[in-house]
Amino acid sequence: MGVAYLLAMKHFRGKEVLDIIFTLPLVLPPTVTGYYLIILFGRNGLIGRIIYDWAGWSIMFTWYAAVLASFVVALPLMIKATRASIESVDRNLINASYTLGHSEFETAMRVTLPLAKRGIAAGAVLSFARAMGEFGATLMVAGNIPGKTDTMPISIYSHASSGDWSKANLMVIFFSLMSGLFLYIANRFSKRLF
Amino acid sequence: MGLSVKLLKKVKGFTLDVEWEIGNEVAVLFGSSGAGKSMTLQLIAGLMEPDAGFIRSNGNIFFDKRSGINISPQQRSLGYVFQDRILFPHMTVRENIAYGLKAKSREQRDTRVSDMISLFRLEGLENMPPSEISGGQKQRVALARALIERPKALLLDEPFTGLDSSLRFEMRKLLQEVRNEFDIPVVLVTHDFEDAYLLGNHIMIYIDGKVQQAGERDDIFQKPRSKRVAQILGLKNIFRAKPIKRDEYLHRLILEVDGLQFSMSSDSRRGLVEVGMEVDLYVRPDEIMIIREGKPVKESLRHNIFVGEIVDIIDRGRYRLVYFQTLKGKILFEISIPNYAFRNLDLSTGKMVRIALREESLWVMV
Fold first, then answer.
1. Residue-range domain boundaries for chain B
2. Nearest in space to B281 (alpha carbons), one of B300, B307, B253
């Protein structure tokens, strides 16, 4: 949300570059995103090495990595939707708040974000849905360790590829029902906001 | 005293370059859209930064390029009512007004808000959202919100656009009350000729980022400095004229428009108008007399008497507009006459009459 606010409200050098970096996971194949994550967070990666030296632990092939992959892949949707909804708030309302003596932070909390909440909620729903269906990047960084890092889409993939149709069927039905239910709740929720 | 600004601001293809000073009075910035009026307000409020100049109000310096002072909009404590009377749509009327208050004890807040609600006659609407109140009510809420912290000046951007005329009248009274209650300079931006006339004691004519003329209202409407100012004010009866003769003995200056001669006092605009140049002549529509036949014409009106035909009459409710075309030169005049005079004159389209121009009706612009 902070990043989206920055992108929507401020003008600074490199703003568009930052926007592109945060949007890339949306267009890159998930395997490429996963590859970048390995480069960054792998035991010899830029950030991964620091963590390993300090904690003697690597995020790779743990369930944390699956969470990280889902987060990175879903992030662009959240940022895009939030930025667009912040930008659509009437600039004069924000200016009015400033002239009434309210600081930028206070204005963001009491005017800008409350007025953008619908778009932010929509972004949250979209990114959650995207994270739920995440497959490629997760496979790259978390692997497919049964009972540990196999997310539902991954385990559906392994059951299907090993010919275990009954289990795959069960999970597909469960997954579809859960997604449908979730979207229903999300729709109800975002309608009630306004 | 009041508000004094000198502003220079360049943006793409537009330069604002103005300097003016007003007292604790209502000043109108008048001009067509894109003339830099709203920009002036934004610069004063601190929402934009001038390239050069200063902004001072009653002893406070808000901005001074030379000494590097630039107070934030939050610290300037100015009341700003934005175009379209925008209110925070997610807050009630009461919350909108209270949002203008800086942190104080709850009791103080409640009394201040209640005071403003009664001052602006908003009782009963306190818990309504802005979407459910009328345009006039929104305007009152916006004013209450802007004034609750007792600002050092009030800035109003097109406050009456889109309100019908009875509401405008009410708003004008309200603005007078505001003036009496809060002794502060009020800067009002409008492109509406009637609003400018009704509301401003002091008017500044904005054209292309510059103040073309500033002064008391009647002065400006009666003595526009140039043809452009006259046109922006919506004035009629402007003619291209040539001064052809100056009679020093009788103190008269003779001007010619399409072969028709006008005579005016050579003492007005002395030193500005010379024989041989081209000027614009403005004839005030409310200072033209239609002569009743059989009645002697006063000596003072003898100078400019023209014969012609009435070509059209328009009923404007409180007065009539009579369109008169001279026989010689075919010059078309717009004449406004009050209803009682109109009835006495028994006028109709096609009728031949004589008109006389009062001495005050003629004004020359260079």
1. 3-226, 238-365
2. B253
Residue A1 is predicted with a pLDDT of: 66
Task: Provide the token pair at A21.
Answer: 């970096």
Domain B3-226 has CATH 3.40.50.300: yes
B93 in Cβ contact with B141 (< 8 Å):
yes
pLDDT value for A194: 45
Question: Are B88 and A111 inside 8 Å of each other by CB?
Answer: yes
Task: Compute the half-sphere exposure of residue B53: CA atoms within 13 Å on the CB side of its CA.
Answer: 22
CATH topology classification for A2-143 = MetI-like fold (1.10.3720)
Chain A positions in Cβ-Cβ contact with residue B100 (cut-off 8 Å): 100-101
Nearest Cβ partner of A114 from B42, B74, B90? B90
Here the tokens at position A124 are: 């949250």
pLDDT at B16: 93
Query: Which residue in A11, A97, A99, A105 has the most chain B C-beta atoms within 10 A of its own C-beta, making it the best mutation to test that interface?
Result: A99
- pLDDT tens, position by position, A16-67: 888 888 888 888 888 888 888 888 887 777 777 777 777 777 777 777 787 8
Q: Of B349, B340, B18, B313, which is closest to residue B187 (Cα–Cα)?
A: B18
By Cβ distance, the residue of A101, A110, A114 closest to B74 is A101
CB-CB contact of A95 with A59 (8 Å)? no
CA distance A140 to A91: 43
The tens digit of pLDDT for each residue in B141-189 reads 999 999 998 898 999 998 888 778 788 888 888 888 888 888 899 999 9
Sequence-ordered list of residues with C-beta below 8 angstroms from that of A83, at least 6 positions apart, any chain: A4, A7, A8
Asked if A132 and A67 count as a contact pair (C-beta separation under 8 A), the reply is: no
Low-confidence ranges of chain B (pLDDT < 70): 1, 103, 270
Note the ipTM here. Answer: 0.76
Residues 6+ apart with CB under 8 A from B81: B139, B142, B143, B146, B154, B155, B156, B157, B159
Quick check: A93 and B88 CB within 8 A? yes
CATH architecture of structural domain B238-365: Beta Barrel (2.40)
Contacts 24+ apart (CB under 8 A), B173-180: B174/B120, B174/B140, B174/B143, B175/B26, B175/B199, B177/B119, B178/B143, B178/B147, B178/B154, B179/B25, B179/B26
**Main-chain phi, psi angles of A173, to 5 degrees:** -65, -45
> Nearest CB to A101: which of B88, B89, B102?
B102
Tokens 């309504």 belong to B128
**Taken in order A83, A86, A90, A95, is the CA torsion positive or negative?**
negative
Task: Please give the Cα distance from A35 to B168 (Å, whole number).
Answer: 66
Q: Are B76 and A98 within 8 A, CB to CB?
A: no
What is the SS3 assignment for B329? coil
